[in-house]
Amino acid sequence: MTVAFFWLVPAKELWMLYLFAIAFGFAQGGMGAVESPMVASLFGLRSHGLIFGVCCFVFTIGAATGPIMTGYIFDVNGSYQTAFLVCGALSVAGLMSTILLTPIRVERSRI
Fold first, then answer.
1. Strands (E) located in the chain
2. Average pLDDT for 36-40
3. What residues have CB less than 8 Å from 35, skipping those under 6 apart?
4. 39: domain range?
5. Residue 77's pLDDT is what?
6. How far apart are CA 8 and CA 67, in angstroms?
7. How would DSSP label each residue in 74-95?
């Protein structure tokens, strides 16, 4: 998704928008498929529902406020390029945060 956002900045032709839509759609669908298993592998199953719910809630807040902020940026600048750069930068920040996550280590006691 990060590459797709940065691809959208210089896009001037319709085929470029179609290429963005294809890449972004596959990335979004892939993210939806791996999010729950990734939460389980990183944080375990004990609080999976709570952690996954918080992730989905934060995603929903971003999905709700993103178009409003993008519209505001367009109204101020007269262009979507700044909004696409902001989305790309936030995507890079999310990617780096995800890379820095490490799975939990559970020590099992011997009885």
1. none
2. 90
3. 52, 55
4. 2-100
5. 94
6. 16
7. HHHHSSSHHHHHHHHHHHHHHH
**Whether the Cβ atoms of residue 24 and residue 1 lie closer than 8 Å to each other:** yes
- Over 90: is that where the pLDDT of 69 sits? yes
- CA-CA distance, 49 to 61, in Å (whole number)? 18
> Can you give the pTM of this predicted structure?
0.74
Q: What's the rounded Cα separation, in Å, for the pair 57 and 51?
A: 10
Q: Is residue 84 part of a domain?
A: yes
First-to-last C-alpha distance (Å) of the chain = 47
In 10 A of CB 74, how many CB atoms?
14
CB 80 within 8 A of CB 73: yes
Residue 110 within any structural domain of the chain: no
Instruction: Determine the Cα–Cα distance for residues 108 and 56; give it in Å rounded to an integer.
Output: 30
Mean pLDDT, residues 24-33:
88
Structural domains in the chain (count): 1
